[in-house]
Amino acid sequence: MRLLVAFLAGLLFAIGLVISGMTLPSKVVGFLDVFGHWDPSLAFVMLGAVGIYATLSRLIARRAKPVFGESFQIPPSRVIDGRLLAGAAIFGVGWGLAGYCPGPAVVSAGSGSRSALVFVSAMLGGMLIYELWQRLRADRAAARTAYETLE
């Protein structure tokens, strides 16, 4: 049942992205072009999303547990640190340059869009490189700790 609900939520999200035009990089670039031919439609999509979130998050927070889960998945940290800021900056630069963010890119890749396929491939490659780098850092830290305990 959880997989069906997850699939339906993703499908609803994808349909919303297509209807709103957010799978078109020209919409995003038009929104960011504040000194040219500015397209404010993305602002209305964001306002709608924030409004729905603000309303539903308060209602959902009153529940003891989610409808389709055992517990709410709350991020362990609310700290704004360098990693968060760097990630946000990378996301923003990529979004501005490519006109895609991950959700709309995946939806557009499903249509066979060459630019979306390139973006999603690069995104997945970046995620893989980051994961490998994190594992390497963890292995080095573990080796350092093991060495220090031998001294």
Radius of gyration: 20 Å
Number of strands: 0
* Assembly status: single chain
> What's the number of domains?
1
N-to-C SSE string, H for helix and E for strand: HHHHHH
Structural class: mainly alpha
User: Which geometry do the CA atoms define?
Assistant: globular
Distance between the termini: 54 Å
| Largest sheet report | none
Helix content estimate: over 70%
Would you mind describing this structure in some detail?
The chain is mainly α and 151 residues long. The protein has one domain (2-150). Helices cover 74% and strands 0% of the residues. The chain is built from six helices and no strands. It has helices spanning 2-20, 25-32, 41-61, 82-98, 102-110, 114-150. α5 packs across α6 (114-150). The radius of gyration is 20 Å and the shape is globular.
Keywords:
mainly alpha, 6 helices, about 0% strand
In short:
This protein is mainly alpha-helical and 151 residues long. It is built from 6 helices and no strands.
Q: SSE layout and pairings?
A:
Blueprint: H1 2-20, H2 25-32, H3 41-61, H4 82-98, H5 102-110, H6 114-150
